[in-house]
Amino acid sequence: MTRDDIPTPALLLDLDRFERNVRRMAAHARAAGKNLRPHAKTHRCPEIARRQINEGALGVACAKLGEAEVMARAGVRGLLVTTEVVAPAAIRRLMRLVSAVPDTLVVVDNAENVAELGREAASDGVTVDVLVDIDVGGRRTGMAPGDPALALARAVVAQPALRFRGLQGYAGHCAHVMGWEARREASRGAMAPLMETRTLIEYAGLPVEIVAGGSTGTWDIDVELPGLTELQAGSYCVMDIDYRRIGGRAGATLTEFEMALTVIATVVSVPTADRAMVDGGLKAFSTDKPFPPESVERPGIEYAFAGDEHGRLTITDRSRAPKLGERIEFFPPHCDPTINLYDRIYAMRGDKVEAVWEIAARGRSD
Amino acid sequence: MTRDDIPTPALLLDLDRFERNVRRMAAHARAAGKNLRPHAKTHRCPEIARRQINEGALGVACAKLGEAEVMARAGVRGLLVTTEVVAPAAIRRLMRLVSAVPDTLVVVDNAENVAELGREAASDGVTVDVLVDIDVGGRRTGMAPGDPALALARAVVAQPALRFRGLQGYAGHCAHVMGWEARREASRGAMAPLMETRTLIEYAGLPVEIVAGGSTGTWDIDVELPGLTELQAGSYCVMDIDYRRIGGRAGATLTEFEMALTVIATVVSVPTADRAMVDGGLKAFSTDKPFPPESVERPGIEYAFAGDEHGRLTITDRSRAPKLGERIEFFPPHCDPTINLYDRIYAMRGDKVEAVWEIAARGRSD
Prior knowledge:
The structure is a homodimer. By secondary structure, chain A is of the alpha/beta class. Chain A folds into two domains: 3-9 and 256-358, Lyase, Ornithine Decarboxylase, Chain A, domain 1 (Beta Barrel); 15-235, Alanine racemase (TIM Barrel, Alpha-Beta Barrel), CATH 3.20.20. Chain A has nine helices and 17 strands. In chain A, strands 1, 10, 11, 12, 13, 14, 15, 16 and 17 form a nine-stranded mixed β-sheet that branches. Chain A is elongated, with a radius of gyration of 22 Å. Chains A and B meet through helix 4 and strand 10 of A and helix 4 and strand 10 of B.
C-alpha cells in the first residue's frame, strides 16, 4: 500500500521524522538526568507509547482514566493519570486499573477526594500511588503551592491505602509563550513555587520521590530545575504548527523536533481558476487555534476552513493550480485534537505505508 | 441506567425534544409539498436516520461516501452523497454502493469526473443517479449556474450509465445570516440562479426531477421556492447554539426547534472560590465557533475552554458554586463536529437512559 492508496482525509505519520523525535527527547532526558513519561493525550496510540518506552521512557502520562484503561489493556505500563478522578464510578474503575497495573499513578487536589480514594483503595485491598497536583499558574486543576499542598500531602500519607509519591505541576500557560527567552522566564517563574513546595514537604519529613512537569515548549528549559525528576512533554513526537511557531533556543521556529504529522486530503472540486476544494474541513483538522492548516511542500495555495467536510484552497499561483484528484498534505494546527478525530494513523516510510496503527484511545476522554 | 451513571464527558439526546423536532420538520415539509432528505452529516447515526425516515423523510443526505457506506450497511435507503466523488478508489467504492443500494444519488461538478463515473458505471453494469451540483454563492463545490450547468447536465445525459435526475444547490453562506428578514433576502438572492438554471435545463428538454437544497437556517424560507423539490436541513433534529442565535421569524432566537443535544461533564476540581474545572475541553466540544458552550439551566457559572480535556468554569454566583463531582450539562456551540467526537449518544427520557445509539459513521469523512 502506498500514499496514493489511502482513502482521504487521513492521518499520516512520517516514521523517519517521528523516530528521530522520539530518540532526541529520550537522549535529552537521559543526558539531563531526568526521567521521561511522555504525555499520551497527544497520540492516544498504544503503538506510539510502546515505541516511546522502548527508547527509554518510564511509561506514559494519560490525561484521563479512559485513556489509561486503553493503554493498560494494550500492555503499556508506568501510567500516570494527570486529571483528578472524582466520580464514584470512575473511582471504582481506577481501583480496577490499579489492581491490574499496580505502578499506576494518579493525581489529587482535594482532601475529600483523598479520603474517598483512601476508603475505596482500602476496601479493595489495593495501594494507590498518588501525586499531589499543584497549580503553577495555569489556572486549571491543582492545589495552591506551599502549605495547602503540604496539608494535602499529609492527608495522603494519613491514608494507609494511599502512597504519597510526589508532585505534579503542569505549566500549560507557559508552553506556548512566543520566543525562547520569554518562555524560559515564564516557566522559571511558574515552576519556582513547585520547587519550593517540594522543599517544604521534604523538610516536613515526607520524601518527594517524583516531581513531574514540563511540556514540549519547555523541553530544554525545565531540565535546568534540579528539583524536577520527570518530563511529561507530549507533542514533541509528532509536532504541529502551534509548537513550531513558538521559536526555539536557536531561532524563530522550534526546529529540534520535526513536523512528522500530516493530514492528506484530495482535491474534489476545482470550480474556478482561483479556487479548489479539498475533502478535509472541520472534521479533519483541529479548529481551536487562530491559524489554519498549512500545505506541505506545495506552494501556490492557501487553505481556509469551509465547513464540516471541506477546505477551500485559494490559488495564489495559477501556474501551480491544483488538479482534480490531486492529493495534498497539510500540517495540522494542533496535534492532539487533530489525532483525536481519527481511528487510525498511517505510518509512512517515504511513500510506502509501513504500518497502520490504531488510535485505540481516540474519544476516551472519560 | 440513569443520567448519574453515564461516564463523562458524554453526549446526551433529549428524546422528547428530538422527537418533536423530527416531527415538526416532517410536518412542515409535507404541508409545503416538499420532500425531506435530512443531512446525516449532523448526526452520523443510523438510528436517527431511521427515525427521520419513519416520520416521512425520503432518505438522508450524506456529506461523504464513507458516511453513506455506513448508512447503507445499517439498512438506510434514499442516500444522496453531497460531495463529489473523485479519487479512482472512491469511484470504485461508489459503484459497489450503488450496486447494493441502487437509489443512491451522487453530485457532480466536473465534466472529466462525469466521464469517469460514466465509464466505471458502464463497466460495472450499474446505472448511477446524478445531480448537478450548483454553486449558489457558497464558494465551495459546484458548477456555475446557467449555461455551464446545462452543459454539464448534457454531459451526464450523454453517458448511458448515468441518469440525470436534477440539481443540488446548498447556500451554506446563508444558513447563519443573523435575523430572519436578512436571511430570507440572502437566501432568495442565492437560490434565484438555481431556479433559473432549473428552467434553462428544462427548456433544453431535460427533465429536472429533483432540486435539493436548504438548511436549518432557511427551513421556512426555501419552501417559498416553487422550483425546489426537497429540503436537506440537518441540524434541526438536535439544534445547537449557533442555530439558536440566528433568530427566527418570530424573534431573536430560533425557537421552532428545540435544543435536544447536550454534553454532560463532571466537576473534577474546585481549586478556588471563583473557579471550578470540568472534564470536558477541546476534545469534548466543537471549537470552530467564536462562542463557548453554555450550561443548561445551571446559572452562576461561565464556561471557557482550558485545554484538550478541561473546561474552566468561572463562578459568577458564589452562592451557587459547583461542588466537586457535580454533573453539569452544556449546549455545544456547533452540533455536527461535536457529535463527530463521540462513539455513542445516550438517548434520554427525562433522567433515564432509554437507549444508547452508536454514532456509526463517526470519523467517516472519507
